[in-house]
Automatic annotation (TrEMBL):
Keyword Transferase among UniProt keywords: no
Family stated for the protein in its record: Belongs to the 4-oxalocrotonate tautomerase family.
PANTHER family given in the database record: 2-HYDROXYMUCONATE TAUTOMERASE (PTHR35530:SF1), TAUTOMERASE-RELATED (PTHR35530)
Entry protein name: Tautomerase
Active site: P2
Keywords associated with the record: Isomerase
InterPro entries listed in its UniProt record: 4-OT, 4-OT-like_dom, Tautomerase/MIF_sf
EC numbers for this chain: 5.3.2.-
Record flagged with keyword Lyase: no
């Protein structure tokens, strides 16, 4: 019973994109480990960019610099 936790920044990921992530992660478990899709759990967590850091900076600040 695989449990896959995907974390992304909360920058407008659409419902369709989330469905594609769920489908792709599930298919990966089927293809690589032979797991059943019916018992494969995929959870997508959206993280505020203030709560995600790269190096010494918050992603919010990095995005504002671009």
């Amino acid at each position: 019973m695989p449990y896959i936790n995907v974390k992304v920044t909360d920058e407008g990921v659409s419902c369709e994109q989330k469905q594609a992530i769920i489908k792709g992660c599930t298919q990966l478990m089927v293809d690589v480990l032979g797991k059943k899709p019916q018992t494969t759990f995929v959870v997508i967590e959206e993280v505020d960019t203030d709560n995600w850091g790269i190096g010494y900076e918050q992603v919010t600040q990095l995005r504002n610099q671009s």
